[in-house]
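Researcher:
Attend to token order:
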Amino acid sequence: MTPNRLGTRFDSPTGYLKGQAKKHYRLSHLFFVPLLNKYYTGLILNQFKMQIKKTTIVVLLLIGSIGIALAAIADISGNWAGPLLTPDGKTAQLNYVFKADGTKLTGTGESVYGTGTVENGKIAGNEISFDFNLNGVNYPHKGKLYTDSIALAIDYSGTPLHVTLKRQLK
């Protein structure tokens, strides 16, 4: 028994109650507290479940967005074109039609110098490499694929050339 400043006891929850009041308090606690605990526990659980649902929805949306972005990046198939600055200072328009099959890259290309084929093409993530066969001569190409462009480095008989191809809509 520990008295407080007012002289009441705090050794039990019903320490300040006497007689019949003590009995009614215990009975009400016996019936109503479990009901209240269940009610409040249900509210807390509902809030927790809502938070879990919201978090799950956000995570799924993020995963879906990343999947769509990766699919857009990985799709190289189609028409690509861009201007190439030649070693003699002129500009030549390059046009490629790529077709991707898994990690294999095939297609055709066209420039003012003629039409050729894409050979030994490889796709590794957003990195690509292929040989462009123009009139029996192979020109190695290495590049990086972006959503709407390809940055290519071309080995033109020992001279490095760079071109940025843009996706062309038909």
